[in-house]
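Next comes one such specimen:
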Amino acid sequence: MEPTELIQTVLIYALPVLFAITIHEAAHGYAARHFGDNTAAMMGRITLNPIKHIDPIGTILMPLLLYFATSGAFLFGYAKPVPVRFDHLRHPKRDMIWVALAGPASNFVQAVFWGLLLIVLVGTGLQERFFLEMCRAGILVNLVMWAFNLFPLPPLDGGRILVGLLPWKQAQVLARVEPYGFFIVMALVIAGVVGSFWLRPLMSLGYSAIDLILYPFMALLR
C-alpha cells in the first residue's frame, strides 16, 4: 500500500474506531452503575473521552504491528477494559449478563447509525468518497467488535454472558478459564477458527439485520 493510500485508510477508520471502542467501554460502565457497581464511575471511566479508554499497546501498537506484519490481512486490538466488580452488582449472576451485553449492543447500534448516515448521504446526492467510505468503515468496525466480543469464552463479553446464563456448577467451570481465555482466543483466531466459524457467519447475520432495520429509510429516500 502506498503511503498516501495508507494515510487515507487510517483517516477513514480513525473516527469509527475511536467511537466504537469509547462507546463500547463506556456502555459497560453505565450498565454496571445502573445495576449497582460504581467502580468505573469512581475511577472516571464512565466517559466518552477516548483517551481514558485507549490502551497504548492494545489500541495503538498491536494493531499497527499486525497491519504491517500481515500487509493488512489480519488486525486485532483492544481497549483498556472498564473495571467492573461483579460482586458489587445487586444480582451478580443475572446483572453481569446485562453489563457484558451492553458493550456489544452499543456496537450494533453504532453500526445501524453509520448505515443510516450512509443512506442519508447517498440519498442527498453526496459523492465524496471519503465520507462514504467512513460510513462503510463504521459499519464494518462495529460489526466486527459486536461479533468478536460475543464469542462465548471469558474474558470476552460473550463468555461472561454465558457464565451468567449457565447453572452455577457449569458457570464456575467456565469462569475458571478466564485467566487463559485471551490466549485461547488468540490461538483460535490465528488458526482461523474464530473467523471461519464465528465472525463471518455472525457478521453476515448482522449485515442482514441492519438491511432489514434500515429498509424503511432506504424506501423513503428512493
The mean pLDDT is 89. The two ends are 37 Å apart (CA to CA). Residues 121 and 197 are 34 Å apart (CA to CA).
